């Protein structure tokens, strides 16, 4: 419950803090002194307080009261600080270009990987359908388990999206939403500061709700068109640069060992379960915070690599061990195949003599798994001839997972045993484990660790995703500015005034001004038309240059958008195949 209540409380506190900041900024004369008088045409977005807009399924809550804050911060820090910040954001341009290339490569790889997995799943379904008419149900289940286990061990669908209820538990949605909002605020702060460095003030700050997905954004006035190419590169890369700094900061924090102050090593007792996604076969059976002590009676503690080594290998942990049952009762049991949904599997007697002949079929029986497999196995043979030592047939692929659960009172009962039928590699890939246990407030400490994990994941995702050359993404603006470096002819055109977001001249501050703010995203296609209007008085060669740049940019955007659609469609198809 803490993983739901904690993020909701913090998200509400964050919204209250932003609202309080807006109220203070609206009433602070030092932040409002640069605003023009109250004229309907002057700064149409500068009225204090919050305003609501609705477009389709998107509801936006925006304010202009925070517009002056980034510039005020830089002004108080002095010119030297402004120079240092400008140098840092120049370095962010290089990282932005690198992130764009990494994102393009990762998107191509992910699109191919997910459809490769779709093809494997389709082949499996076709093979099972073909064999269904002449294979017994039990054999069909063995075939399916073998094929699925081999596929899970040898393939990967590439980058996995964070989908609550599908790839992550539904209860993680508030935490993911909080991590997304915080990272977006950090992202937009980068754009705001970068613009303020070049004396371009943002025109509004917005909170939006797209269906059920929250987001934050800022917009700039049309005066950003007059910025130099280098300044535009800084402006486009600054948001993702902040996300990358967040990711690196969290990695460095984890490397300091500070988080370990809240955890204690439990490697002497087993491995701790950190997360179980909904796609895992263990979901609903094993929970976060459980401790796995044994698998097939193999102790998972002490040896740090035992969990991964055993779960990914082919060793039989209880080889030569079994359970002693009454011989007469066992011989009276039903012969295979075992009835479906009966809770029985095929058992066979164990002969401890090396080189013994195979067990006669008459001694292979269908036996209930509970309660016999709830207790640890013992070394065969049994103490008397009245008993017979039996074990599930190895092709049944029974995996016994013993849990050491925390009990509220001493003597709270036997440890739980989870039985899984299938390739144990599926369990390995479906559970995230570790060696550390929270020292106190276990639920809160586990949530804090989960939140920091999602913070780093979302920060890196925003860095890569926003740098992809997609419409409405920073990568499109970055690509546009990179193409402008080919031949930068940033000269002031005669007869076309340069639009400014603020007037810094002492003389001009005395005169009411009308700021022609044009709201747009940095990569909007409307900017193409605007640039064409501004360039009508230029040379014909410049027009041809702008035309080929626009074609290149739109071609790249279309290609990336197509790859994104292919990747998303692949995940949709894969989900349908696995659900069937």
Briefly characterize the structure.
The chain has 580 residues and is of the alpha+beta class. Helices cover 46% and strands 14% of the residues. Keywords: Membrane, Signal, Transmembrane, Transmembrane helix.
Parts with pLDDT < 50 across at least 5 consecutive residues: 33-44, 132-154, 353-357, 407-414, 488-527, 529-539
Helix content: 40-55%
Total helical elements: 14
Intertermini distance: 32 Å
Assess the beta-strand content as a share of residues: 5-15%
Global shape: elongated
Radius of gyration: 32 Å
How many domain units?
2
Query: How many beta-strand segments?
Result: 17
Query: Structural class, judged by helices and strands?
Result: alpha+beta
Biggest sheet layout: 6 strands, antiparallel
Instruction: Output mean pLDDT.
Output: 76
GO molecular function: metalloendopeptidase activity
Subcellular location: Endomembrane system
Keywords: Membrane, Signal, Transmembrane, Transmembrane helix
Pfam family, one: Peptidase_M50
């Amino acid at each position: 419950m803490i993983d739901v209540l904690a993020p909701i409380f913090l998200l509400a506190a964050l919204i209250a803090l932003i609202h309080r900041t807006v109220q203070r900024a609206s009433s602070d004369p030092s932040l409002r002194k640069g605003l023009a008088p109250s004229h309907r045409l002057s700064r149409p977005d500068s009225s204090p307080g919050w305003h609501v807009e609705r477009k389709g399924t998107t509801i936006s809550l925006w304010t202009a009261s925070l517009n002056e804050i980034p510039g005020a911060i830089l002004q108080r820090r002095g010119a030297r600080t402004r120079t240092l910040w400008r140098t840092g954001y120049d370095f962010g341009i290089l990282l932005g270009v690198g992130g764009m290339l990494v994102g393009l490569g990762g998107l191509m790889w992910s699109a191919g990987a997910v459809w490769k997995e779709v093809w494997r799943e389709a082949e499996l379904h076709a093979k099972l359908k073909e064999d269904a008419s002449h294979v017994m149900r039990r054999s069909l289940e063995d075939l399916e388990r073998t094929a699925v286990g081999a596929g899970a061990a040898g393939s990967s669908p590439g980058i996995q999206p964070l989908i609550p209820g599908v790839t992550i538990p539904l209860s993680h949605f508030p935490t993911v939403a909080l991590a997304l909002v915080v990272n977006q605020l950090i992202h937009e702060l980068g754009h705001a500061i970068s613009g303020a460095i070049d004396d371009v003030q943002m025109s509004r700050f917005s909170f939006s709700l797209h269906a059920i997905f929250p987001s934050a954004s800022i917009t700039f006035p049309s005066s950003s068109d007059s910025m130099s190419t280098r300044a535009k590169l800084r402006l486009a890369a600054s948001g993702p640069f902040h996300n990358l700094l967040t990711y690196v900061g969290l990695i460095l924090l984890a490397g300091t060992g500070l988080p370990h102050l809240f955890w204690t090593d439990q490697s002497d007792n087993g491995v701790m379960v950190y997360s179980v996604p909904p796609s895992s076969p263990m979901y609903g059976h094993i929970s976060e915070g459980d401790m796995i002590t044994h698998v097939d009676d193999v102790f998972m503690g002490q040896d740090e690599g035992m969990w991964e080594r055993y779960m990914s290998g082919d060793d039989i942990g209880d080889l030569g061990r079994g359970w002693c049952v009454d011989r007469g009762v066992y011989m009276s049991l039903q012969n295979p195949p075992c009835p479906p949904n009966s809770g029985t599997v095929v058992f066979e007697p164990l002969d401890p003599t090396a080189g013994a002949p195979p067990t006669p079929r008459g001694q292979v029986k269908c036996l209930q798994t509970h309660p016999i497999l709830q207790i640890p196995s013992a070394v065969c043979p049994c103490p008397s001839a009245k008993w017979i030592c039996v074990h599930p047939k190895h092709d049944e692929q029974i995996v016994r997972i013993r849990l050491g659960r925390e009990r509220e009172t001493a003597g709270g009962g036997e440890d739980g045993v989870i039985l899984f039928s299938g390739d144990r590699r599926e369990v390995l890939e479906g559970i995230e484990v570790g060696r550390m246990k929270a020292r106190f407030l276990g639920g809160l400490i586990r949530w804090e660790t989960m939140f920091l994990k999602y913070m780093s994941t979302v920060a890196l995702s925003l860095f890569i995703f926003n740098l992809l050359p997609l419409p409405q993404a920073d990568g499109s603006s970055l690509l546009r500015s990179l193409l402008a470096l080919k031949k930068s002819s940033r000269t002031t055109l005669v007869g076309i005034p340069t639009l400014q977001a603020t007037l810094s001249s002492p003389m001009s501050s005395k005169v009411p001004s009308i700021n022609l703010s044009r709201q747009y995203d940095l990569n909007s296609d409307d900017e193409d038309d605007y640039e064409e209007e501004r360039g009508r008085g230029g040379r014909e060669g410049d027009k041809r240059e702008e035309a080929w740049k626009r074609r290149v940019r739109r071609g790249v955007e279309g290609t990336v958008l197509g790859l994104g659609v292919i990747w998303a469609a692949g995940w949709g198809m894969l989900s349908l195949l696995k659900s069937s």
